[in-house]
C-alpha cells in the first residue's frame, strides 16, 4: 500500500543525450521518496500494486552494475529492501541514494547503473502493459536506432503507484 499521495515528495530529473545514453528529452525521471508504506514494503505487495495500476509482470532482482537503458518501454523500480546508490542518466548523470520504500520511474531511454548496494537490496521492477523492453548498454552503433524507438514510446495511461490520478500522469502529460 502506498503512502497517501498528498504526503509524497516527487523529485524530477531530466538528462541530456550524451551520445551513448539517449535519455529522454521529453519526459523526466521521477523519484517518489518513501512512496511504499514502511509497514507494508515487501516484494509481493509491491508487484501487486504495480499490476493493479497497469504495470504487470513484475520481476525481482537488483540493478545492473553497468550503464544500461531500455528504448522500447518505460520502467518502474520499487526498492523493497535495502539501499542503493544509483547513477541515473548515464556517466554524466546524477547519482542518487535510494532506500526501501522509494520508487523510481524511468522514461524510455533513461540510463541507470548501480554504483553500490547493501547486501539485502531487493528491487521489484515492471513495465506499463507488461511489455518486455529491450536491454541496451550504450553502444554508439545502437544510438540512432534507440533514439528513434524512444520517440515512439507513448506515456503510460497510469502511474504504477497511484493509478490514473498519480503524479506520473501530470508530470509526463503536462511537463515537469
Gyration radius (Cα, Å) is: 15 Å
Strand content: 25-35%
Count helical runs: 3
CATH class: Mainly Beta
Q: Report the sheet with the most strands, covering strand number, pairing sense and barrel closure.
A: 6 strands, antiparallel
Order of helices and strands: EEHEEEEEEEHH
Report the CATH topology name.
Jelly Rolls
Largest beta sheet: strand ordering: 1-2-7-4-9-3
Task: Give the termini distance in whole angstroms.
Answer: 25 Å
Name given to the CATH architecture = Sandwich
Q: Total domains, how many? A: 1
The helix content is 10-25%
- The chain-level mean pLDDT equals 94
Task: Find the structural class using helix and strand composition.
Answer: alpha+beta
- Give unreliable regions as ranges: none
Which word captures the global form? Answer: globular
* Annotation, overall tally of beta strands: 9
CATH superfamily: Jelly Rolls
Explained architecture:
The protein is of the alpha+beta class. The protein has one domain (10-163): Jelly Rolls, CATH 2.60.120. 16% of the residues lie in helices and 27% in strands. It contains three helices and nine strands. Strands 1-2-7-4-9-3 form a six-stranded antiparallel β-sheet, covered by helices on one side. A three-stranded antiparallel β-sheet has the order 6-5-8, with no helix packed on it. Strand 5 and strand 6 (94-99) form a beta hairpin. The protein is globular. 45% of the residues are buried. The mean pLDDT is 94.
Amino acid at each position: 500500500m502506498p503512502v497517501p499521495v498528498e504526503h509524497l515528495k516527487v523529485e524530477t530529473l531530466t538528462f541530456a543525450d550524451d551520445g551513448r545514453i539517449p535519455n529522454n528529452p521529453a519526459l523526466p525521471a521521477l523519484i517518489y521518496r518513501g512512496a511504499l508504506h514502511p509497514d507494508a514494503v515487501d516484494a509481493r505487495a509491491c508487484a501487486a500494486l504495480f499490476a493493479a495500476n497497469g504495470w504487470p509482470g513484475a520481476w525481482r532482482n537488483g540493478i545492473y552494475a553497468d550503464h544500461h537503458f531500455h528504448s522500447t518501454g518505460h520502467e518502474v523500480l520499487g526498492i523493497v529492501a535495502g539501499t542503493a546508490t544509483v547513477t541515473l542518466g548515464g556517466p554524466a548523470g546524477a547519482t542518487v541514494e535510494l532506500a526501501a520504500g522509494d520508487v523510481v520511474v524511468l522514461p524510455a531511454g533513461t540510463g541507470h547503473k548501480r554504483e553500490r548496494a547493501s547486501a539485502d537490496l531487493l528491487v521489484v521492477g515492471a513495465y506499463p502493459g507488461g511489455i518486455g523492453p529491450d536491454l541496451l548498454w550504450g553502444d554508439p552503433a545502437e544510438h540512432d536506432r534507440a533514439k528513434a524507438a524512444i520517440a515512439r514510446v507513448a506515456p503510460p495511461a497510469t502511474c504504477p503507484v497511484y493509478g490514473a490520478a498519480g503524479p506520473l500522469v501530470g508530470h509526463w502529460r503536462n511537463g515537469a
